[in-house]
C-alpha cells in the first residue's frame, strides 16, 4: 500500500475524504491511460524495428497473445501529439466594435470543438477556455493547444516570433502573410488576392512557452478557414505527423481549399516540410 493511499485512508472528515478520493481517482485514471499509451507505443516501435510479436514477448517475459493484444488495444500512441493526460484548448474571444460586445467566431468555435473531439478520441481529458479580447492568456501550462493568431494576442505574437523558419509579416499592401525564410516563399491567403478565391493558409507548430519550461501547440490561419484546415489535417494525418516530429518543437504550413459558403475545408495539403526547430537552431 502506497504512502499516499495510507494518507487518504486516514482522513477522518468524510467530505474531505470524498474530495481526496475523487481527485486521486482522476489522477490515477490519467496515469493508467498514459501508461497504456506508452506500453502500446513501445510494442509498436519494437515491431516496426523488425521484431516479431513472439520475439518481443520472449524478451519482455509476456505471452505472444498478450503482446498482440497490447499492440491493438488501448489508447493510440499518436494521441501524445496533443498532450499527455489532459489538454486545454483555447480559442479567442473577439470584440464586436459596432455592438461593443464580446463575440466568438463560428469557425473558432468549430475548430475548438473538433479539437476537443479529436483529443477525447485518444483518451485525453479536455478542458476549454478563451483567449481574452485583450489577448491575455497564461501560456505557462502543460498540455496547452492555442487556436489564436499573433495579431490577436501579444503573448501569442511573442510565441510565434520564436519560430526560426516561419515568420508572420504584414505585406506592403496591407494583408498579413507568412514568410518561409528557408525557401523564400511568401504565403498569402486567397481572400487577399485579386481575384479572391476560397483558399487560406494555416500555421501549425509546437513552440516554447514563455517560461522556457515546456512547449505548447499553436494553430492559426491567416483567416479563420486556415485554422479549420489545420484541424482537418490533424484529424486525418495525426499519426503521420506524430511519426515525423513526436513531441519535439516544429512548425509547418497548411494550404486549405474551402467551401465558400460554409467555410469548411474541401482539401488540405502541407505547403512546406515539417521544420524541426532543433535542426534549424543547431
Task: Give the gist of this structure.
With 282 residues, the protein is of the alpha+beta class.
Count of discrete domains? 2
Strand content: 25-35%
The major beta sheet can be summarized as: 8 strands, mixed
Mean pLDDT: 90
N-to-C series of helices and strands: HHHHEEEHEEHEEEEEHEEEH
N-to-C span: 47 Å
Radius of gyration computed on alpha carbons: 22 Å
Structural class: alpha+beta
User: Which ranges are low-confidence, i.e. pLDDT below 50, for 5 or more consecutive residues?
Assistant: none
- Helix percent reads 25-40%
- Structural shape: globular
Q: How many β-strand stretches?
A: 13
Count the DSSP helices.
8
List the SSEs and their pairings.
Layout: H1 3-9, H2 14-48, H3 53-60, H4 64-72, E1 86-92, E2 94-96, E3 101-103, H5 106-121, E4 125-131, E5 144-147, H6 154-160, E6 166-170, E7 176-180, E8 186-188, E9 199-208, E10 215-221, H7 224-245, E11 250-258, E12 265-270, E13 275-276, H8 277-281
Parallel strand pairs: 1-4, 1-5, 5-10
Antiparallel strand pairs: 2-3, 6-7, 7-8, 9-10, 9-11, 11-12, 11-13
Helix pairs in contact: 2-4, 3-4, 5-7
Explain the overall architecture.
This protein is of the alpha+beta class and 282 residues long. It has two domains: 73 residues; 202 residues, no CATH class. The protein is built from eight helices and 13 strands. Strands 1, 4, 5, 9, 10, 11, 12 and 13 form an eight-stranded mixed sheet that branches. It has a three-stranded antiparallel sheet with strand order 6-7-8, with no helix packed on it. The chain has a two-stranded antiparallel ribbon with strand order 2-3. Helix 2 crosses helix 4, helix 3 crosses helix 4 and helix 5 packs parallel to helix 7. The longest helix is centred in the N-terminal third of the chain and has 35 residues. The mean pLDDT is 90.
